[in-house]
Amino acid sequence: MLAIRAGQMFDGESFSTGGGTVVIENGRIAGVEAGWPDLPADTQILDHPDGTVLPGLIDCHAHLVCDSSDQALDRVAGYTDDAIEAVITEGLRRQLAAGVTTVRDLGDRGFAVLERRDRQRSGTSDLPEPTIVAAGPPLTSPRGHCFYLGGEVGDRDQIAAAVQERAERAVDIVKVMASGGMATPGTDVLAPQFPLEDLRFLVDRAHAAGLPVTAHAHALSAVEQAIDAGVDGIEHCSCMSEKGVELSDELLRALVSSGIVVSGFIPVPANADMSHAPPAVREMMARRGLTPEQLAEIRLTWLGRLHRAGVRLVTGPDSGIGSELAHGGVSNAVAFLVAAGASTADGLAAATALAADACGFGDRKGLLRKGYDADLVVVGGGLNADIGVLSDVRSVVLGGSVVS
């Protein structure tokens, strides 16, 4: 039996008053109690009187085939199988060290991450690593955003075949590139990549196979199209047009009423070094005369409006695609959401309980509840007073075992 005692506890939804104890047995949470209850003499106890214990963090938008260096996506197509395996291993290591115990991968190459997930589920993976939720290669138009990952589809026959392949491989979710992307030259971030009827066809085929769909969408028109097509999630949801970011009250109401989960909001600190950003981002900023501080303010205003409207937000900072967005950066996404106006509890819920639900694990992860998976993290301070201590990871428990 293992017990974690901490001066503060966040259970995935709210903070407790005073200290708390989480008891773990056989890989699951056996009890959650306030204060310091008496425990059997043979209990292994981890004491963190000045820390906070909370559910393991969840990254809902990661690219495990990317190595966390600048322009990482550009190199993925050239990796050997051994090299891509090493990159995935390192990405998972970084995530776990940051307290992330579940990773949703939305940018696979050739199903390499999905195969890693399958090894996890079969019990043949010999490394402690976050639980993987996998989409396989994202579906994209010919030469569309991230086409080199292997998900190009040009017509409905190809869409149907691609969805069928993903169903047969038992992916957890289907990702589609509804707009162009900043990291793929020649694609248009301000326009949809598919006709609306083709996108509806894709979503309908996936739903018929029992698979949810999340859509990468920077363009306002692509966000509107994704909502019309009936997707379950939208990545980025940047709402960009030639006029800038356009987020109407009508669009907010549509996002809320649909229950769509918005992930992939990228934290942009006011002091960001934009020399590391993709060329398309730097070009956009130069064209509009934006400083990093102005871009950060625009992003915070946009994210704050999404939050205040009640849009379902979960953390997923596009992990792995660059040095500013390295694997293990979920704490930055939580802090950015709090800076946009969310309470600390709401920001943490976006990385725990709400994120677990978005990954299909809401009945066993993301909460400190009896019977739930014993995936936990302890950070070195009082989170309720300072969200910054979320990056100060002291202990990580994965499936009931202390791994860090």
SSE blueprint and pairings:
Layout: E1 2-9, E2 20-25, E3 28-34, E4 44-55, E5 57-62, H1 73-76, H2 81-97, E6 100-105, H3 112-122, E7 131-134, H4 156-168, E8 174-177, H5 196-208, E9 213-219, H6 220-229, E10 233-241, E11 244-245, H7 249-258, E12 261-263, H8 279-288, H9 292-309, E13 312-313, H10 330-339, H11 344-349, H12 353-358, E14 376-379, E15 393-398, E16 401-402
Parallel strand pairs: 1-4, 5-6, 6-7, 8-9, 9-10, 10-12, 12-13
Antiparallel strand pairs: 1-2, 2-3, 4-14, 10-11, 14-15, 15-16
Helix pairs in contact: 4-5, 5-6
CATH superfamily of the largest domain: Metal-dependent hydrolases
CATH class of the largest domain: Alpha Beta
- CATH architecture tag of the largest domain: Alpha-Beta Barrel
Number of domains: 2
Total of helices: 12
Radius of gyration: 21 Å
Task: Give unreliable regions as ranges.
Answer: none
Distance between the termini: 18 Å
In terms of DSSP E residues, the strand content is 15-25%
SSE order in H/E notation? EEEEEHHEHEHEHEHEEHEHHEHHHEEE
| Total number of beta strands | 16
Task: State the secondary-structure class.
Answer: alpha/beta
How many strands, which pairing sense, and closed or not: the largest β-sheet?
Answer: 7 strands, mixed
Could you explain the architecture of this structure?
- Helix content is 32%, strand content 22%.
- With 404 residues, it is an alpha/beta fold.
- The protein has a seven-stranded mixed beta sheet, with no helix packed on it. Strands 8, 9, 10, 11, 12 and 13 form a six-stranded mixed beta sheet that branches. A three-stranded parallel beta sheet has the order 5-6-7.
- The longest helix is centred in the C-terminal third of the chain and has 18 residues, at 292-309.
- The two termini are 18 Å apart.
